[in-house]
Amino acid sequence: METPEEIEKLSNERLEEARILFDNNKYDGAFYLSGYSVELALKAKIARKLGVPNLFTSDEKGLKGIDGVASIRSVIKTHNLFTLLILSGLKEQFDIDKARQENVSLSLSNSLFFQKWSEQWRYMPCGSMGESECKKLLELLIDKKGILEWIRAN
What we know:
mainly alpha
């Protein structure tokens, strides 16, 4: 992935894959890919804010002469959504917006994604995620006031 746009495209693809899995009663995979779509959206935001090309690949094209890029990459390779929220520069605005009564989606996203999701979900036993909770998560992603639209807008 060489651009924030490519990372964002991959985020959208993972969300579509999550919807396909959900529609086929594969809730564990749907939940994992839902969180991964949020992870990628935050990483796209970080790449834009830092203005460093080719940030998430090991190819050094375009990065020669830029000291410290490897260190930045190692930090950004985290899967921790809360850490990525901080690195994206969006945490303060997220806290403000989720506290507003009219944006219930962000408040729910906080508890379901930032507090529950991790890359470790890919190792959870089959049946760990239920249909209703997974449906709620996907709705939070698809919602116009949901976390993915919020990340893109801020």
